[in-house]
Amino acid sequence: MPLDTSTYTLALLRLDGRRWNELRRMHAQISTQAAADGSSYLEMGNTKVICTVAGPSEGRRSGGGGDDNATVQVEIGIAGFSGVDRKKRGRGDKRTSEMQMTIANAFSNTLFTNLYPHSTILITLHVLSQDGSLLAACLNAATLALIDAGVPMSDYVVACTSGSTSSYSSNDEAADPLLDLNGTEEQELPFLTVGTLGAGDKVSVLVMESRVQASRLEGMLAVGVDGCKQVREILDQVVRTHGKRILESVVK
Question: How far apart are the C-alpha atoms of 239 and 233, rounded to whole Å?
Answer without folding.
Answer: 10
